[in-house]
Amino acid sequence: MSDSWLALEPGADPVERARTLRRAHETFTRAGTVSRPVRDVVAASWRRSVRAGVGPDGTASVELMDADLSAYRADHPLARVMPLVRELLGTFAADGEHLLAVCDAHGSLLWVEGHRATRRRADRMNFVPGARWAESAVGTNAPGTAVAVGRPVQVFAAEHFIRRVQPWTCAAAPVHDPRTGRVLGAVDITGGDGLAHPHSLGFVQAVARAAESHLALSAPERPAEDHAELTALGRAEALLTTGGRRVRLSRRHSEIVVLLALHPEGLTGDELLCALYEDERVTPVTLRAELARLRGVLGPGRLASRPYRLTVPVESDIAVVERRLRSGAITKAATAYAGPLLPGSQAPAVVRMRHRLADALRNALIARRDPDLLADWAHAPWGEDDLDVWRALATVRPTAAARSRLAALESELAVPGRW
What we know:
There is one protein chain. It contains 17 helices and 11 strands. It has helices spanning 14-31, 40-51, 66-75, 82-95, 116-123, 135-138, 142-149, 198-218, 251-262, 269-276, 284-298, 317-326, 330-336, 348-368, 371-378, 387-396, 400-413; strands spanning 99-104, 109-114, 153-156, 169-176, 183-191, 228-231, 239-242, 245-248, 303-304, 309-310, 314-316. This is GAF domain-containing protein.
């Protein structure tokens, strides 16, 4: 197949392909082996589903309802593009007896609209607003897989990991924040076998790109001089949006800007020196040279001295996660957490902040005992060896995969444990 993200190559018989996929799915769920013609993207998703503890007879859970769902949707950035999505996809969905759906970056469905009879059928498998359709919750499916891999994808028939979803076919494309590049969610079209066509994938991808363009044009205007945005989680080098420019900072400049953003009152040269360098032999001259170069990157008037401070307020993804944790919005905090703070940095103050933020979030997840949130953390690169999270996950979702991984970790770390 020329494009592995498409479900069927031109001329393929959908009935025969569905039959072959059902056999392959049964083989995988029984023996753990993947046979042709299962696509690589689907095979990888099936494996992630098993590692997350998803079973083929599972179902989606509804996590947000009524006022909570309404409030969350109203605050979500994709609410601004829903009129456009309805205009582009609504008629197609209604006339073709399909559904249009929009999920957030965590795989939670925010809107499900379309043909009335099709909606009633979808209700029976909890494909409804407020339900969690992340891969870690219900296995392979177009919206969940699209946000997991950050790519448009089709999922046809028995490519779905959950058996009750296998009569359906869907195509979804992620929508990115035009300023930061982060995945905000996905646009999905769900229906019958007729959607296993290149046009449906191209269509949702075009709608997602139109949504991104609309977000870029409709973003609230801010005076260039009075606001900056910093993205530093899960990145070796931070992104700073300021003065109408989006700047990728060097590693050292990333560390400096993160520290100044966390200390809007400013830091003295000595404080910065201690915060940035483990080596006490580094001189103030070295730091002043770095700050001079940073001034050139930021532009005139944006970095003051005595003490060193940024002259514009900075909204950082670090602060977003911290605020959500303080307010008890654990799911939203986990959604905003894209990974450890500047993971390659050895600056002492950055290392401390990295551990403090990660520990606060993981402890909140352990206390919350939500199996899907724990699975998302455990299967992320930063959580693969997190013994406490795997213990919590094996307690609330005691699948063979979770118990096996926990036993392996306890053996590797020589930590007593009994399962």
